[in-house]
Amino acid sequence: MPLPTPKARPKADPTLGLINVVFLMVMFFLIAGTLAAPPPPGINPVATAEADEAPPPDLLTVAADGTLLRGGVASDPESAWLELPEYHRNPVRLLPDRDAPAARVVEIARAFRDLGAESVVLVTDRGTAP
After folding, report:
1. Would 37 be classed as within a structural domain?
2. Is residue 84 situated within a structural domain?
3. Among candidates 88, 81, 85, which has minimal Cα distance to 112?
């Protein structure tokens, strides 16, 4: 008695595996990406070519008139230092406005050093620096 020949199985689409890999990569980069709030309105950051894409959390800003801002609210270095979580105190990150007086930015940075900050980092906007 002859055996029936099995039916040929349809071949799987080779692009299905590629689609799955690409989808997983998209999910990974969405989850691994850094999300941060934009700087407060009215702040025009200094531009450099090597800056990070997103501002770090608990960023302190210096307005054009020299006012220190934490979360968009005026503050002094001592109050801002005490409100910062301990894990964001070293280094302290300052985002100065492009038109902020340099002497005032240095004064604020020195105040944070005097309060106990190991270092103060100036955060800039990524752009085309001259």
Report:
1. no
2. yes
3. 81
pLDDT digits (tens, 9 = 90+) for 42-80: 877 776 666 555 556 678 888 889 888 887 788 888 888
Say which amino acid occupies 64: A
Q: Model confidence over 19-34: pLDDT tens digits?
A: 888 989 988 887 777 5
| Token code pair at residue 125 | 């906007």
| Residue 45 exposed, middle or buried by CB count within 10 Å (0-12, 13-18, 19+) | buried
Residue 36 lies in a domain: no
Domain that residue 100 falls in: 47-126
- How many domains in the chain? 1
> At 55, is the secondary structure helix, strand, or coil?
coil
Say if residue 91 is preceded by a cis peptide, omega within 30 of 0.
yes
CA dist 68 and 65 (Å) reads 9
Residue 87: CB atoms within 10 Å? 8
Domain assignment present for residue 98? The answer is yes
Strand duo 120-122 + 92-96: pairing: parallel
